[in-house]
Amino acid sequence: MAVFILRRLMQAVLVVLAMASLVFFGVYLVGDPVWMFVSPDMNQADIAAVTASLGLDRPIWEQFGRFLWSAAQGDLGRSFVFGEPALGLILSRMPATLELATAALVMAILIGIPLGLYAGLNPDRLGSRSIMAGSIVGFSLPNFWVGIMLIMVFAVMLGWLPSTGRGETATWFGITSSLFTLDGLSHMVLPAFNLALTKLALVIRLTRAGTMEAIHQDYIKFARAKGLSHRRIVFVHLLKNIMIPIVTVIGLEFGTLVAFAVVTETVFAWPGMGKLLIEAIQRLDRPVIVAYLVLIVLLFVVINLIVDICYSLLDPRVRLGEASR
Amino acid sequence: MIRYRMRHCQRPALVALTAIATLGLAATAAAETLTIGLAAEATSMDPHFHNLTPNNQIAQHIFDNLINQDEAQRLVPALATEWEPIDDLTWEFKLREGVTFHDGTPFSADDIVCTFERAPNVPNSPSGYGTYIKGKTVEKIDDYTIHIKTETPYPLMATDVSTIPIISAAHCDATTEDYNSGAATFGTGPYKFVQFTPGDRIVLQRNDDYWGDLPEFEDVVFRPITSDPSRVAALLAGDVDMINIVPTADLETLEARDDVALHTGISNRVIYMHIDHWREQSPHITAKDGSAIDNPLRDQRVRLAISKAIDREAIRDRVMEGQSIPAGQLLPEGFFGVSPDLEAEPYDPDGAKALLAEAGYPDGFRMVAHGPNDRYTNDARILEAIAQMLTRVGIETSIDTMTNSVFFSRASSGADGQPEFSFILVGWGAGSGEASSPLRSLLATHDPDAGMGASNRGRYSNPEVDALLLEALGTVDDARRDELLAEATEIAIGDLGIIPIHYQVNTWATRAGLAYVPRTDEWTLAMTVTGE
Hints:
The structure holds 2 protein chains of 2 kinds. Chain A is built from 14 helices and 2 strands, in the order H-H-H-H-H-H-H-E-E-H-H-H-H-H-H-H. By secondary structure, chain A is mostly helical. In chain A, a hairpin with a 2-residue loop joins strand 1 and strand 2. By secondary structure, chain B is α+β, with helices and mostly antiparallel strands. In chain B, strands 1, 8, 9, 10, 11, 12, 14, 17 and 18 form a 9-stranded mixed β-sheet that branches. In chain B, a hairpin with a 2-residue loop joins strand 6 and strand 7. The N terminus of chain B is likely disordered.
């Protein structure tokens, strides 16, 4: 186990390094960030002074070398736009994104698994067919459009929920989150649902497929013959056996929920790190872009690791050492 | 919480149960909190960190300048009550007495000295105030009199000074972090700092000891809502009371509603075409068969033909939904230094064809026009329309638009550090509110050593214009300077150094019952929002 984890972490360092250099040079190719910051009234000497103060007058190799040197010491640079350390900036926005992603994931699981089970157990009923048709809609509608529609219907027309923004926060066991207040929750419903929508469709489909396959297996028949109740068969024997693909997918999807909630955060003016990223890209705020992606790579590595460990817990036949080859 | 109650009030039927208890409170509270949805977010509460509209407009609430700019960018007394040049190199400012900062310390000349020291030297600042401060020396005469000296006669003193927020000498050493946290955010302005949560909100509270007129709203919340449809929806849902930069596509819908009021005003921003004046052969221009030709844009007749071929009224009506005013120069009328004689070039496609034939291009030529697609209102669509209009008179124009981070880098220093494009759509907002700003940056000969023509991406150069501009920049007498700037503008526009398209018109939307005074500098200020 320890060797496995160590090997994974070494791989992660290589991936982070490759990622950082790709992004660093990629952003350099896009354009000179100085033009995004300087005020129009500045003359050439002022612009040159800003360029120099941000270190952008140096050759790109030197800039990269300096970046690597300070990154090795844990400093990912200061945001050009905010003047603050990029990593701190991202971490300060992280709680908002994490709570949104968690709420979305919980929604997807709590709604998706029961619906998927129902559809898998009763594939021919009208209800099941509607669920499956609905899940196609969930997959295929653009997130941006759905978000706007949710706002129009539930905030503008019906007036039930707030349209945008994060609600009040409260602190509980040292965690500050808007999940702990009524106002916060009401602000959370629409963006979390919007973010959950595609994952919800995914969970429904996975659960249904797994159910339909497992229901004909011998162990289910045996359980029936043994006289176990329907409820016990479905919720203990069947559910446990179809969980492996669902856990894998949910694990990986949680990563994408956190990393790329950009669209939902933009539509709902959610002060998370996705919005920070998109604005950094628009303004060529290189330190923030690089730091963000480095952080995301690490996040995915950790999630993959946790998923692998979960496997071995769910299914004793899985050996971690072999999984990594 | 107050804002939330207001939402309830508007729909008592839906939430009758919860609202009944709070209705009494809401009726009084609703008048006092103003929530504003902004299209762009301030990056810092440090007034000297980044000289950029989203930051400046927030700073203006908390801090005063020596001189403020009113809604039409005219200079009005603020912390200075009087100012005048006492000799060619010295300006005297009389300071307002009896003003205190939000932390209770009294305002005096020491604060000005400190501000002029700190403003150009903020660490990590991506664009600070050095431009307005360099070459000026502040001298304290007594507690309420200062002299600002320059090395050469400097008529724009009052304009420059009107851009710099004054901080308290007690917090002269404060860092940007101290301002963001509120530890040092004490100004003399009409609002006090309460809270800054990046990405989420800025909360301000009225300064009841303000020296000027008290604003109507006691509490103000600014929320960044960058997505256009979401910002409009937030207003319609009653989550915000006011939004800026209303997308032109939504104007018609909003106008038809009686729970929304629109407030429209012209801006100081001109949208114009910049033209390759200096290359013998321009990289994005060829003959119609694709063969290389000499740069036709160096011929004044060709430039005039292009100007005549553009139907500015059609652009206003069909692309801008009425939100523009056809432009004939650098700033709309009413601003300092504009010429009374310049009108927008009338649409004349036949005249354009005749001019092209006269210049030796009876069959026209082929050209690629470049522009940003996310910087100015409807920028890419304006460029599309212009390309079609030019193609109609024989200049076969295709367009290439790109995101502004790519565009400005390439347009300013793309190939070998020189502007890369032949024919571009750009805009210029005159922050100083007078004509020397665009003349100096866009039309003066590009000269890094002299600091002239910094944004002259067409490299237009006319010694006559340069001479008039230099004379104007050294003329303290307002009337004479006004004439000189107008004359320089007339010559440069006569040469078609740039081709003006239109002045942008900006719209703010509020819930019905609120009034706002639109500003030419596009700032959104809570001070000038009033109930009816």
